[in-house]
Structure formats: C-alpha cells, structure tokens
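Case study.
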Amino acid sequence: MMMRAHYSRALLLLTLLIAFVAPVVHALDEAQAGVIDWHHRWIGTPRLTATPKTVRGSPHVFVATEKNVVAAVRTKTGELIWRQMLREDEDIHVIRPVNGNLFVLSGSTKTNARMLDGKTGQIIWDFAPAGEPAYSASGFGQAATVTAEDGNLIVINQGIHIRKLSANVGTPIWHWSIEEGSPTSFFAVVEAKGFDKHDSVLYVIGLTRGVAAFSLEIAVLDSNTGERIKTFNPKSSILRYEDVQVLGGGSFEKTGYVAWLETENKQLGTLKLGSDRVNHQTLKSIIDESSGFDQIVGPLEFEYLGPLEGRTAFVLSAAVGEYHDAKSAILLEIDEKTSKALVTFDFLERTGFSVFSAAYKPSTQDLVILRAYRAEVESGLLELVDVTKHETTMQHEFELAHDQFGHITSASLELFNKGQDQYRVSFTTMDGSFHSYADTERWYREESLAYATGVELLDLPERKLWTQEADELAHDAKTAEGHLSLIDRYTQRLTMHLSQLKDLPQFLISYANPSSLFRKAPKAVPYSEVGIGASNRTLSPLYRDQFGVRKLMIVSTGKGKLVAMDTANKGQIVWSRQFNWGHDIKNVFTVRPANLRLPPLIAVVAETGDGSGGHMIRMYRLNALTGQDYESESHFFPSSSWIPAGYKNAIKLPFEESEERTQVIVIADDRMHLTTFPTSIEVQEHFKNFADNFYFLLDKKIGAKSLNGYKAIVSADLERMDIEPTWTLNFPEDEEIVTFGERPNYEVMASLGRVLGDRGVMYKYQNPNYVTVITVAAKVAVPFMTVYLVDIAKGSILYQATHDNIGLDQPILATQFENNVVYTFWSEGLSTYDARGYQVASLELYESGVRNDRIKGETFSSFSSQRPHVIAQSFPFPYEAVAIGVTTTKAGISSKDLLFGLGRDSVMALNHRWLDPRRPTSAPTAMDKEEMLVPYGAIQEDTRMMLSYHLEVAGVRKIVTAPTLLESTSVVVAYGHDLFVTRHAPSKTFDILNEDFSKSQLLLTIMVLLVMLVITKPMMDRKELKEKWF
Amino acid sequence: MATKQWKFDFASPDIPRKSVIDPPGYLSSKDVATRAQKKSQSDDDQELLKVKKAWDVALAPGKQLPMQAFMLWMSGNSVQIFSVAITAMLMFSPIRAILNMAQVFDRFESASGVKQSFTESALYLPKITFIAMQLLSILLGMWKLNSMGLLPTSHSDWLAFQDPKTPIEFASM
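After joint prediction, the assembly is written out as follows.
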C-alpha cells in the first residue's frame, strides 16, 4: 500500500495535468477497432438441430439453444451466419426448415410462430395467437410438421390448438381445438395413409390424463378443412410423453404407426394409425433378444433420433452395468403386415454414454443410424449403422479430451452425397460446447462461454525472469533445493549472462532493424470465435507483454468448466478444464501471482452433490498456466480436496503462508464451520490472530428480508473454527434485497481527498467494509426502493436513501468503488407530470461535510462512531443498463470511467465526472469553475462513448476490469453471453506515444543533423585555421 | 597668491605669466589642482558624501517596489509563463543583490585601512536598509506566489503526503 502510494505521488501531478487537458469524451479510433478488442458471439448449447434436406450437403445448420437463441451456423467452419436472440422466457419448442427458411415455434406465456429467412434470420412472418400460452397444464403439447401435400405447416400449440398455417404468409388456413382444461394434450402430428374413404388425413396424437397414467388419444383431422373425422382411444397406460414415438407416415401414401412404452405393465405397444388394433409385446421378450441387456439396471427408453418423418425403425436402449455409464441398445422395425415391432439389429453394450441420431441417405433413401459415444479418455467414437443392410458401415474414432469436454450429450447426423456418400455429425458435449465432425472438416464452438459466471484476470510471468530462473534450475537439480552457496550462485549467474552474450549482435540488429521503424499501426485481422479452440494452432508462449496488457483470462462457466483464454490473441483458449457431474463453480481465486519464481496458482472452489442428496464442497489447486493439477510435496497442499458439507462462502484472506507462498483461503460451510486452506498449523495460528477482526457475510441472497453478519470463533487449541452470528439487520416490512453493489477486485486510492476550488480538501471516507444493498418494496401501492450502505463489520446503516415510484420490471444495478457508489434504476416519476426514465444516481462519501476536516488517527475502525457525510445526486440516463462496472488502473490516478452493459447490446464508458454529485445545479461559481465541475444536466446520448462501437455484444451480465502496467489503461471484460474484451484508457493514453507518432521522422532528422555535422566540421576547422594565418 | 619667483618649479607647470591674461573660459590646470586639493583636504565631507550615496543605493530597490507591484498586478494570477517569469525574477534578483551587496557598497567604503566592526561602520544602516528593501521585494514575490496558488499553504498541497488510514477490521462479502 505504501509503495503504491509513493508511486502514485510521483505520477500525480503529471497525470492530473494531462487528465485535465485531455478532452472529456474521446471515441475509439476507427483503425483501432478489432485491433485492441475482440468479440465472441455465442449462442449457447444447441438443444434442437435442424438441417435443411439437401443432396450435396447443407451449407448451414439451424440450431435452437438452451438460451433461446435461434441461429444458423456454417457447416464448414462453424461460424455464425445469423442469430436471433429470443426473450429469456421464450422457450423454443420446434424448429423446422421449410424451403430454405426456418419455422420457429416459441413461447411460454405467449406463443409465437415465426418464419425466419434462412439466409439472414430476418422474420418473414410472425403469427401470434392472442392470449394463447404455449404450455399446457401437462407441460408439453407443441409440435409442427410440414405437409407433403401442399408444403404448409401443421402446428400444435398448448396441446389443444391445431392449426394449418400458410407457409408463405403465416395466416391460419384452419383451426381446430378442443376446449381448454380438457384432460387431453396433443403433442404430435403426422400426415399418413387414411382409412375408409378418407384419403387426405392428419393424425394428431395426444395423451389423456387418467387416474394413474396417460392414455393415448388419436384424433383424425381432414387435412383440407381441419374437421375432426374420428377419434381413436387405444387402450394404453403411458407415464410420460417421451414414451411415445410416432413412426411412418410423412405422406398420404405411407402408413403411420405409433409405438409406446408401458413402463408399469412392462410392455411395448404398437398401433397402426387409422385402426384400433393394439399390439402388445412384453419388454422381457425384447430384452432377451440381446446379450447386451444381461446386466440391465435402468428402464428401457426410446432414443430420440431427430425429427425424421417416415421411418419405421426405432431404437430402444437402457443403462447397463453398475456405473450407469454403459448403454445397450437394439434396433426395432415395424413389420408392415402385423404392425408388430421386430428386433432387427443389436447395438450391443458400449460404455461412455451413447447418443443416437438418424438420417436418410440422399442416394438411396436408406435410413442410417448414428451412435456416438466416448471410447477412451482422449477419444470419442462414431458408429454408423445402415438399417436396411442391418450392419455397421463405419466406425470412426476421433480425438475428444475427456477433461475438456466430458461426454457427448446429443448428436445430429447429416448424410449427403458429393460423388460419394459422406456424413457430418454435429454433437454437443457436457461442457456445453457444440462440435461438428466430418471427414475433412472439424470444428467446435466453445459454447460454455455463453454461460460465463465469473472471470479472473491473471498477469502473466515476465519473460526474462522466468527463463532465467528456469535456465538456472535446469543447470543443476541442486539449485532447486537452494543448497548453492552465494559464490556458486554468482558464478552461475555470470556464466549464464556470458553465454547469453552471443545473442547480443542479433539483438542489436533486431533493435536497429529499419523495418521496425516503418511498421504501420497494426491492422484488424478477421477472426472468429470458432478458431479459438482449434487444436492445430500454435500458441505463442505465455509471457507478459511490454505493458502488461496481455493477460490470462480464466472464465468459470455455469457448465462446470474453466476456460483460460489469452486476451491478447483474440481469446485463444490456452487450456480448458471440465469438472464433471454438476460442479457448480463458486469461486476462482488467484492464490499465487505470476511474479514469483514459482508458477502462478489458482484455487477453484465448487459445490457438487455427494451422491445421496447432500452437498459437498470441492476445492482444486491448478497451475494457472497449464490448467493441470498442481502437485506439491507438502501434504498440506493437495491438488484436490473436499469438505462434506454445503457451500456458504469462500474468502481470500489478505495474508499468505510461508511454505508455498500462496494466499490463504477460508471456506465457510453450512455446518457453520470454517476451513482454512492450507490447513497447516502456521496458517491456523495466523488465522486465529486474524479472526479477532474478521467479519463476513454468508449468503448474499436476492429476495432476502434481512442481512446477517458473522464472525469466526477459533478455539484456543485450534481444534474448532466455527462461525458465530454477530448482527442481524432486518429491513422494514415489504422490502426485499434486489441487488448488492459489486466492488472491483483491485483498487488503489491515489488521493485521500478531493481538492475543492479554493484548494481546500474534502477527505474521503476510507471505510473498506461498507456494502451497498438495495431493497425494493414491490407489493405496496407505490413501489419504492431503498439504498442502504451497511458497514458489514458492525452491521450498522451508514446511509440510506429512498426512491419512490420506481419501475419494477427494470434492472436495478449498483457498483461501489473508493468512496463512491453508483446505481441505476427506472423512475416512474413522483407525479404524472414528471418525466419517466432511467436514472443513474451517484453517492460520494466523505469523512466530514466541513472542508479541511480530517478525523485524526492512523487507523480506521468500523466501530468508531463516525458516520460518513454523503453527497448524492441522480441524473437522467438515456439507456437501459444491464451490467455495471468501473475501470481500475495500477495506481488509481487516472480518472475513472463507469462501464455500462446496455440493453441495446453494447458496452459504454461514461467518465465519472459526469456523475459527480457536486455538479452545480445553478450557475457555476468561480470555485466550481476552478474545480472544473460541469453544470448539472442529463447524461447525453453519445455514440462516442460506446466501447463496443457497432458490435452487437449480447447479454452482458457483468463487467470486470484489471489494471495494466500502463497507468492510463485498463483491461475491460464484458461477459454473460457474448464475450467482449477491450482496453480502455479513461484519461487517454498519456503514458505511451501516440500510434501515429512518427519515429522514422525523428530518427531521420537526427541522422540528417549528424551528417551535416560530419560535413561541416572539417569546413569550419579549415576556416578557423585560415583566419589564424591572416 | 602669485608672487615673483626666481626659480621654475618643473613639478608644477604653473608658469607665472601675469602679463598674459588667460583667454576667457580658460582654466589653468593649477587652478583645478588647487581646487581639488582643497576638497581632498576635507575627508569628513568625503565620507559623508559616500554615506549619502550609499543611502541612495540602499533605497533604490524600495523605489522600484510600486512599479514591480504594478507589473505583478498586471500579469494576473493565472500560472502562465509571463507571470511566472516575472515572479521568478522578483524572487531571485533580490537574493542575488543581497549576495552581491559587498560589491555594491565597496566603492562607498571608507578608504582608511583600519578594520571596523560592521556596526561601527558608517555603511551599517544603509546596508541593513538595502537588505530590508530586497526582502520587501521578496515578500512582494511571495505574495504574488501565494495569490497564484503556488505556495503550499492549503490542505490540498499536503494531501499527497498524508498516509491512508489502516483499517483495523477486515470484512468480506
């Protein structure tokens, strides 16, 4: 702290001078776009895949993802062609390619049926039936199919509405529905061969809720008018709609079938559509057909093979073996004559979580079934089975690292013919990523990044230091143990330096290389988010760059995966690591920075299930440069460890232990125990002393009505370290916590006070222990929000402010830094005449309201009686903010920019001086002018403030920043869905030369002067000599 | 004064030629010499004159003060090259003058080789006054520096040298 403070003093004057001279707003230079920043467009993990039917292979594949994004992905490269982000509550039920376009049925409380242009993603038509939710009471009931007859769409919604929509304009041609609240929900529709005199009929398959189970109901509709012709109610007892498969059909010529599993009766039912005759087969007879089912442990289930009309083959599978990871499967086909299902192929037992998909061969229309599973720790396996030939036609093993991707969760097969039959498999893995595999082309999209929940920015080691140490260590193993005497060490260092001398000429040449002088400013190169994980790429070694702008960005994701990316190389993935089986990653801490001779370390704290309904805290120590477990000789530093209890909180403590030089972490669990990491005696002793003044919160629960403070209790013999509640803060009735103010990870206060116009000082309130808590009372006539600044050491409210009549559906965000708090909300106005809109409010906390008044003392205690003097002001804000952050710089001297992620999919930087609560609301006085306060006004819309220029940075949830070695510059990372990383200099880059500074010109001038000197010096000498003669 | 003399004194070019009248406006060198002799005879007068001259020199900076004050006022209170240059001049030239005081007053020192203590010296008061006058102009410069805000007299000037408070408690969310 002291060091930083001195450093800051030295820079202060210069910086302030330049900061004030620099213009207030400066936009990104056009040439810099895409050079210093990068942007990854993510879509989330695909849930539904649809490939347009082609012969020569589709150029794009349509996907609908868990995050409700519809997108078209280029099949060759994996790049995004377009994406449409639907609302968070707008679940996608069906996607169907229709003549090169894409039909999408989506919604939850409302329903939208849309046709999107296949090339651009633009909406061609949108049909939204008024007041019709998408979900039925049973939770299913959406389907869509394209009729072979006229190419129009049959759409089922809410389980009760069946419509024929015109594929061209989206108007309903007919609408048939059963009354709402009926026990029947329809969920599938198929166009198939009619019966009696009815030729063009549609079979709508539904389930009717009975006492114990569902039973099938099949309605037959006239395809042209939508009138019901007949209803079949075959005898059946079905538990879930996934246990029903509709087979065959696809045109009026083909017979349709339904197959279903009756789990309770242990039988398989089949039925020819248009008849009442049900065939039952016992499951036992099916199981006995295959030796693979010898060790069956799970129930038989249908494998979903994709939206594929007309097939009569289906796959039944079950988990086998004691570890539940092996799966046996068999292929069944409906016999046309008897309508019975016959086993025609045995897929046998395979470990590694098989998934299935099917497609037709474009040349012969033969059905081919894909089975994809993990074969080895490092590889996956694809098996193609030709249904007509009843044989495995291809087996292909491919690289798929288990610790990066986990198992395959779903697959989709596409067959095409380019002179010969080829295949392409798209599949998703447990980590959420989306892969595509074909003979020659292979790519994957690291979609786990769309679920980013946290980002830790790590400085890279300095090249010189690192190699030097490594070289010396390599010389002699003894060095590592530190047994060398001082002289030995010195000679070793000397010899090493001497040996390095041979590189000197080369170094000088490279330094004097004229081409480096005339190098143009770096140009933006095209990049995409797909290339970041390519396995054949060459990674530049992980060293810090000159200004420390290059960092390792460790992203923790909601999928239980850690992804380390290189911020300088467009986010190239350095390593990634998948923690399987529901790891909920809670914290990633840098416990040892890179500037020591030991590699940087991160600690990962995650919560998992313990297999019996309970929770377990798991903790890992990884080498931050490789992602591998970090093994240490000391048994106090296991690379992974666990606590058999649920997670409450994990805190990085401000001291380090001496053995491995890592910072100590303390984990609080739901047994109200504390565990330090490492657990060595030294650490526990230290923690015991530390615990006297250590206070913390346990759960930062949104929606809570109170806030609780806790303290550590360490017994004298270090046997027990427990948590003791110290205070409770109950908020008034109706109020619930909506947000906490986030503090930046790194913070240095350069100046202890604020200088006023008359050179007086307002001293900043230096309490590091206050937290901003915002509550909302929503269930009152006029909803209001209250901002509390709570000292979490003693649990007292330092300040509170209430805003009446706020907008409840709008985001409320808060951030705090130094002695400032900034929060945003929507104001409905206090009267009908007031303007409504977003407001951003700013608080500044001072020790005293009187100038030049500083509270004496060298220490600050939360338990002293002093309260801050708070200056507050709010400003109308032109945008919807969905994320908030603040820039951090090395010494904290540069001015601060507030960073906002906006609802309009961009990232904005706003200088803090615009949010200064001391901006004069009347005509500025001489003192105000001296202080350079801008008169009060609304925050203006200004596109120059957009850090993301024209990029569509979707779904930003959080913004984190990290300092660089340049005081002016801060690295900004916006994440949540898309990933956007840039550099930002709030006070402009005053500490580096401008990019257009002409070094060549300077050098040229010097050269010319030197030459002139060389020429003129003898001339002058001669002249002087001559003058002496006369 | 001029009586008959029978010898020539070659040491003095005075030629007693009473017969020839000097041309109008001519002053014989002897006359001048005699007059000078007359003056040099009164040493006390000489000393007084020196002291008087010394007083003139000592008071000269004081006479400049109003002019300098006017210039400072004209240059304004903003920190610019002009005002800074003037103020710097105002600060440094008195110091230089004080350092060079011995030279300035050298020609007014009494010729007698007797060492006198400073207080006994006749130039004692003028010298003190001289220093006082120079200090006055330094003060004027100080006042100017202050009004330009360049003197570290306010809290803000010492802000960077204050140490932050160490928090006793460590609290974490």
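Observations recorded in class. The longest strand of chain B covers residues 170-172. Strands of chain B lie at 166-167, 170-172. We will return to this complex in the next lecture.
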